[in-house]
Every structure is written in structure tokens, then in C-alpha cells.
């Protein structure tokens, strides 16, 4: 197994046993998730959007308060992270080049 596969398995296990995780471990896992996803996004050329729609923003907020959040919130974040890392790994392994362009017609007229 690769380090990425091991990490995905660790996230799924943690999600299945989230009630047993101490608050510090919950936050630590989510911080690792954020760093891993940012790194993988950078490798594949996926730009950081920084908007509220980005799941990493939500995970960052959750990481700071993971000990006070319901188990269901933490479980959902860990499973979502595992899926995101899996998807990014597939893109990395397939050597697909990600090209980001601005959407046509969304520019504001300059007058």
C-alpha cells in the first residue's frame, strides 16, 4: 500500500470510530487532511479558490473546534476528505493535465 492509500484507510477507520477519538486527535487528523489536499491540489494544478464553497474552508473551521462538534460532523468531514484524497490520487496517477481557464462571458464590461 502507498502512503496515500494508508492515509485514506486511516481516515475511514477514524470516521467509523469517531466517538473513540480524543478531541486533539480529531483536530490533528483534519489538519493533516487540509495539508494533504492542498499539496495534492498544487501538484495536479488545481487552483485554490478560497471561497466558502471550498470544502477545505469548512474543514479548517471544523479542525479548530473538532472537540466541540457532533460526531456526525467530524465523521462526514473525514469521509469527504478520504474521497477527495482518493479522487486527487486518481488524477495524479492518470497523469491528466488540469488546465484552468476563466469562464467566457463572465467578465464585467469595462466602460
Account of the 3D structure:
The chain has helices at residues 3-16, 23-44, 55-64, 71-94. It is mainly alpha-helical and 111 residues long. It contains four helices and no strands. It has one domain (3-94). The protein starts with a helix and ends in a 17-residue tail after the last helix.
Instruction: Report, as a whole number of angstroms, the end-to-end distance.
Output: 57 Å
As a percent range, the share of strand residues is under 5%
- Count up the domains: 1
Strand elements, count: 0
Largest sheet: none
Q: What share of the residues lie within helices?
A: 55-70%
Silhouette: globular
Residue-averaged pLDDT, rounded? 82
Please give a handful of descriptors for the protein shown:
111 residues; 4 helices; 63% helix; mainly alpha
Give the helix/strand layout.
Layout: H1 3-16, H2 23-44, H3 55-64, H4 71-94
Helix pairs in contact: 1-4, 2-3, 2-4
Task: Characterize this entry briefly.
With 111 residues, this protein is an all-alpha fold. The chain has helices spanning 3-16, 23-44, 55-64, 71-94. Helix content is 63%, strand content 0%.
Amino acid at each position: 500500500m502507498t502512503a496515500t492509500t494508508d492515509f485514506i484507510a486511516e481516515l475511514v477507520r477514524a470516521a467509523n470510530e469517531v466517538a473513540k477519538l480524543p478531541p486533539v486527535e480529531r483536530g490533528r487528523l483534519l489538519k493533516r487532511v487540509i495539508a494533504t489536499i492542498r499539496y495534492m491540489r498544487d501538484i495536479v494544478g488545481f487552483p485554490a479558490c478560497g471561497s466558502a464553497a471550498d470544502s477545505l474552508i469548512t474543514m479548517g473551521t471544523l479542525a479548530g473546534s473538532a472537540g466541540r462538534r457532533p460526531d456526525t460532523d467530524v465523521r462526514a468531514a473525514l469521509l469527504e476528505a478520504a474521497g477527495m484524497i482518493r479522487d486527487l490520487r486518481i488524477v495524479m496517477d492518470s497523469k491528466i493535465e488540469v488546465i484552468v481557464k476563466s469562464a467566457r462571458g463572465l467578465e464585467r464590461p469595462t466602460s
